[in-house]
Amino acid sequence: MARSTSTFRCTECGWSTVKWVGRCSECQQWGTVIDVAEATGIVRAVQAVQLGEARTARPIVDVQTEDAAHRPSGIGEFDRVLGGGIVAGAAILLSGEPGVGKSTLLLEVAARVAGTGRRVLYVTAEESVAQVRLRAGRTGALHDELYLAAETDLATILGQVDAVSPALLIVDSVQTVSSSLSDGLPGQPSQVREVASTLIRVAKERQLPVLLVGHVTKDGTIAGPRLLEHLVDVVCQFEGDRQTALRFVRALKNRFGPTDEVGCFEMTGEGIAEVPDPSGLFLSSGRSAVSGTCVTVALEGRRALPVEVQALVVATKAPQPRRVVNGVDPSRVAMIIAVLERRAGLKSLGEHDVYVSTVGGVRLAEPGADLAIAVAIASAMRDRAVPHELAAFGEISLAGEVRPVTAAKQRGAEAKRLGYTTILDVEAGSVHAAVQRAMLASTGSRERELDAAF
């Protein structure tokens, strides 16, 4: 007979070893190697299970899809990200930084769903019911069909589900709930896996949609095992800056809809409010033209948003000029400055400090904002204001040419809808020609020639 030995296996990647180690040598995760006590050399037989009529496999054409239809939550921006609403039996994970407003958003979702006559169970594992009641009174999220429970034990939460029979379950948060069937403290990978898998199994069996709140680590990833993101149906990320009231909800994974949609919200004193048309949030309110500004059209999901890029160029006496950016990629700004020096004739940029920022705290990560950044820097360098009617979008290559970007027609249509009559894009050909055209438009007359800088 084969000898039974203890084997230690990583719960993240499956790597095994004969002795315990604190860190997996394969995936480099800490605290994921556990003793599985498996018997070696023994082949276990699996007994076939007699299937009932409800569990027997059937042709895919005979499967009805009415049960998987989207039901609106009452918040249009949240439904946009989910693909139209909440699907029965879906497990949705919402993650975000502490204090960004996850609990406020889900409390508003619970109130809107309860307002339609469906019963909602809101389980808080981090606050008391009195604290949640206080916030709900401030935000106007009070309803008779909204039930509250402050529980941290998984078995007790399942008992609450049996007693209330809700149409929607919200658990805030999954990292603070523990199960007696798994060892370890709440938040450890084994506990998070057990809690999440049990709640997801209940959701599938009862066609009960479950909204889970997830914590994030220092680097912004979801805390707990990576398996958590594979188990759930939808993974949403709640983004926002503490210095601004604007919030974004993005779908990182969605089995029932697209993953390129973005929902816009604004945190107010009365709670969280939708922003259906955020066109004017990222533009300055000044009416007079100022040098060093240019408007680009960024693509957030399927939504085109005008964003104003501001630049400031000042002479420096330091041996190394400063490059300070906010809301844009520092490496791309450095590349654009080098292209302007080499391809557009701005030779003295190496003797100036360059500051680049966006309005409203929005972050531009796509290359489509390169041309607007270049025009803003050139405008600040020459101290010539770009007209309010000009918008620019396009990717700049190291050769100095303007390359096309995705959804160019949609960006152009959105710019024209907002009143931008002059659009700089791939038709400009090169960054030198685009900057020339912007500077000529700033003079108000085509007859005035540019100075020796170009």
TrEMBL record:
ATP binds at G96, E97, P98, G99, V100, G101, K102, S103. Residues 67-216 form the RecA family profile domain. Plays a role in repairing double-strand DNA breaks, probably involving stabilizing or processing branched DNA or blocked replication forks. NCBIfam families: sms. A motif (RadA KNRFG motif) lies at residues 253-257. GO terms for biological process: proteolysis; recombinational repair. Pfam families: AAA_25 (PF13481), Lon_C (PF05362), Zn_ribbon_LapB (PF18073). The middle region has homology to RecA with ATPase motifs including the RadA KNRFG motif, while the C-terminus is homologous to Lon protease. PROSITE patterns: RECA_2. It comes from Agromyces badenianii. Gene3D superfamilies: 3.30.230.10, P-loop containing nucleotide triphosphate hydrolases. One of its GO terms (cellular component) is cytosol. Belongs to the RecA family. RadA subfamily. Keywords: ATP-binding, DNA damage, DNA repair, DNA-binding, Hydrolase, Metal-binding, Nucleotide-binding, Stress response, Zinc, Zinc-finger. This is DNA repair protein RadA. PANTHER family: DNA REPAIR PROTEIN RADA (PTHR32472), DNA REPAIR PROTEIN RADA-LIKE PROTEIN (PTHR32472:SF10). SMART domains: AAA. GO terms for molecular function: ATP binding; ATP-dependent DNA damage sensor activity; ATP-dependent peptidase activity; damaged DNA binding; serine-type endopeptidase activity; zinc ion binding. Residues 353-454 are annotated as: Lon-protease-like.
